[in-house]
Amino acid sequence: MSAVKLAGIRKSFGDNEIVKGVDLEIHTGEFLVMVGPSGCGKTTLLRLIAGLEQCDAGEISFDGQRVNEVPPRDRDVGMVFQSYALYPHLTVRENLAFGLMLRKLPPAEITTRVNEAAALLELSALLDRKPKALSGGQRQRVAMGRVIVRRPKLFLFDEPLSNLDTSLRVAMRGELARLHRRLGVTMLYVTHDQVEAMTLASRVAVFNEGVLQQLGPPLELYHRPANRFVATFLGSPSMNILPARRDGALLKGEGFTLPAPAEAAGELLVGLRPQELRIGAEGPFSGEIEAVERLGFDGFAFLKTAAGPLVARFEGLVEVGQTVRVQPLGDATHLFTPDGTKALRHPPAERKA
Amino acid sequence: MKVAALALVLCTGSASAAPLKLWHAYRGGEEQALQQLAKEFTAQTGQEVELLAVPYDAFSSKITSAIPHNAGPDLFIFAHERLRQFVRLGVVSPSELPKFSAGYLKPAVDALEVDGVHYGWPLSLKCLALFHNRKLVEVPPQSTAQLLELLPTLSNAEQNRFGLAYEAGDFYFHAPILFGFAGQLFGPDGKSQFDTPEMAASLGFIRQMQDARWIPQEASGALVKSLFNDGRAAMVISGPWFAGEIDAKVDYAITALPTVSQTGLPMRPFLGVEAAFVSSKSTQQAQAQALAKFLSDGPGAVTRAVLGRQIPAALAAYEDPKVQDDFVISSFRKAALQATPTPNTLEMTRVWEPMKLSLRAVLQGLATPQEGGALAERRYRALHREAPADASALPYLLVFGVGLVATGGLAWKRRTKVSFGRKYPEAARGILYVAPAAAGLLVLVIIPFAVGISLSLFHHDAGTYRFVGLANFFDILASRGYSITEPLSFYFTLVVTLLWTGVNVVLHVSVGLALALLLKSPLLRLRGVFRVLLIIPWAVPNYITALMWKGMFHRQFGAVNALLDALGIEPVSWFTHFATSFAANVITNTWLGFPFMMVVSLGALQSIPQDLYEAAEVDGASKWTQFRHITLPLLRPALLPAIILGSVWTFNMFNVIYLVSGGEPGGATDILVSEAFRWAFQRNEQYGFAAAYSVLIFFVLLGWSSITRRISREEAAG
Prior knowledge:
The structure holds two protein chains of two kinds.
Chain A: E1 2-13, E2 16-27, E3 31-35, H1 42-50, E4 57-62, E5 65-66, E6 77-80, H2 92-102, H3 107-120, H4 136-148, E7 154-158, H5 166-183, E8 186-191, H6 194-200, E9 203-208, E10 211-216, H7 218-223, H8 228-233, E11 240-247, E12 250-253, E13 256-259, E14 267-272, E15 277-280, E16 285-294, E17 298-305, E18 308-315, E19 323-328, E20 334-336, E21 343-345
Parallel strand pairs in A: 3-8, 3-9, 6-7, 7-8
Antiparallel strand pairs in A: 1-2, 1-4, 4-5, 9-10, 11-12, 11-14, 12-13, 14-20, 15-19, 16-17, 16-19, 17-18, 20-21
Helix pairs in contact in A: 2-3, 2-4
Chain B: H1 2-13, E1 20-24, H2 28-45, E2 49-53, H3 56-66, E3 75-79, H4 83-89, H5 106-111, E4 113-114, E5 117-118, E6 121-126, E7 129-133, H6 144-154, E8 162-165, H7 171-180, H8 197-211, H9 221-229, E9 233-238, E10 252-255, E11 259-260, E12 265-266, E13 270-278, H10 285-296, H11 298-308, E14 311-312, H12 321-325, H13 327-337, E15 340-341, H14 346-349, H15 352-363, H16 369-383, H17 394-414, H18 420-423, H19 427-455, E16 458-461, E17 464-467, H20 471-477, H21 490-520, H22 527-539, H23 542-552, H24 559-566, H25 578-606, H26 610-619, H27 623-651, H28 654-661, H29 672-681, H30 687-717
Helix pairs in contact in B: 2-11, 7-8, 8-16, 15-16, 19-30, 21-25, 21-27, 22-25, 23-25, 23-28, 25-27, 25-28, 27-30, 29-30
């Protein structure tokens, strides 16, 4: 069953169309992450769902009920803002209780819920502080607590971790995942960080330029990207994309040849994940190392080849300026149409198991 | 001859002589005449003359304060009424007028005599006469009986036409009527008297004319002028200056004021003699006297009569054919025959304010003509309170000395072991940096403050200061001479001031905030234009705004009443009742004050993150809840200092009170600071009493600032 259904949603600001006809269903209880580069329309979509913006076309429905005209306060959604939007003049306790007081809950009930949420988020000791006396992570937890106490049926997160430093972000990611498991509510999460998308999501929706590119579980998107954009957006470093052409049993590109899969025909783009390429003495690619990203014993090397820049994994010793060869690990070839809009082939899935 | 001889003397050494400084309050033709005469004088004698036109309102106090400090002019032109005061303060030199007295109208010479000595040279005469529009009035009334017969035929209240127009609220214009009813201003003991049957009769007479709407209400000079020029006032009581204000198209004549039929006495206007006085501090006495005489006699008088249309005091001027042709001058010369010189006594200067109060009260219907005199009497006694008994300065000096020693001792006890120089090795440079600001503070704040406090311990009367200790404070705080519910009482004024401040600040903040919210609304187009328009009241100097509002609140000709009238609402006589007068002040000051609060609110509103409203919206807050729980609390830190500042500004907002209501009715709308001003400059120069008021104002504001400091400290802590 779908908690939220978007059908043909369009939204412009002035002459600038930000959301260009999005259809999307969010299942009850799932953690859906909307990811994409800045300006792709994901935050606008979230605000449309919250009711903070009105869409120009299309229909938003919650549990089968059209909500386009319903004001935010009657949609039963909770939202965590990128800036946290804590009320600076209120204490943590008052911040948590604010929404409940507005809904005229009995004071005893408010106290219980606030204390529960505070315990869940380890905020109990901070209840009488004001936001300016809290650290970034604590503020973030208060912002989440404010939604939790209200027990809405839909949680909305607008890049909630982007203002935190890296280590805190990793920790909060864990807490968020735990929270989702524990509360079991529907969560809709917007981020531009693919790591958050991959680690948190039940399903990921990738957006670019106001259009939904692909929707699916994180690994499916990683292994079977629907187009060049999804392929390069997810995974780090990005997938290598090289133009090639089928010539008999071979795929020929500038300065390399690969065995041609059955799906290949004519001009196309070859996609190879850096993780699937190894630097060594042999292989179809040859190039000079321009930069090295060493993670320890292994790492990624950035090469200049005849076909263009190429990133590949290495183990052991490599040096900048060295000329090396690159070998794919088995069948790793993704194929895309020359304009990149459609994937033609993915490597066989059983390899990954 | 004499001038020529003197010129010869002067010419020999005048090349390097400093120019003679002459102060005057002339405008228009009178000023031109003076400029021309100054040039002629320079041409004849080689002596340069420097003219300075001084605003009339401040002229007298400028002279009495500048000349004793050698900062004044060599000579000045002033009416004779203040002569006795000038003599007492020693700012004028005697003249050789008696030697030439045959050449002048007698009353002009008499007016310049104080205790047997003559001062200054008479220039011109001023008195009131009756102007009539010859198209409307064929034969001017000779008596009040004729006048009262004539007025109904000339007046039509519906069309704003009046038989007679004059500044009825000013005692200068009422004095001839009082004298016509056989009234005497001073009793046998030389003291002013107000509560007399003659006073009641004269007040009854004008009240009768106003109640019948034969004369306009609250007439100002400007109103009288426009009514006469528009043909809506058939007759006007005014002086020679009025001739210069009449349009060329109006055919008019001037006669002496009518006789009062009940008594058979003529209405005798005050005769003012304007004279050129030589400053006692002038270093060029001979030249200054020569210039004064030059302005006064013969050719000088002709020039002033022809160009400035003055009524010359010099008889020779009337021989001149151009002067003889001027019917204004000849009419006024005739009118002057029945005039009585304004007494130049100190007692005379004390008559004006009580009589103004009484006239306003009677004309506005707040008092009957019979009560008018008693009202003036009471005000007179309050204003000219008996000097408190002299106090010995010794105990005060003792307390001051002990305080000084105690402070010094405390400082000595608290001194640190480390010497100042060791502790602050860079002190010299630091002191150098601080010095300019410290010097400014000393000169602009600390010294005036100390002088003000010292002054509050003195009683000033007629140029002499007597130490009276805290008597001024006791008198103020005990409300001596009037009950605490009277406008002259400190407590009454304090309550009015607090009410004034409270009402204003509430209105400023609410109007300012409401407009700021409107301006912030994304729905509003042309936001920038509105913002500029709304800030304009702030950009216009506040006294100009105050004067405009004053005009708009005029009973008969103001825009506010015109608007009320158009809406079918009865026009309001704004300044006759406390509530409406106070409201007029508040409206004016709100107009002046809301932009500041609006700008502060707008800035603060724009600094509230939009996220908070969105979060609240998702949380379930209505617009009103958002305003109450987010906007207001978040505006508080920015608005609080603005409110504190605004309250102090409003507390001391002299301009609006002084210019709009002027304290009307009867000083009820005066606030502490305007009341202090009146004690100092409008009520017998009671500087010590006024200073005591200022000190009390200081303590009130000190108390307020300690409260606000606590509030802001709590705010900062919270």
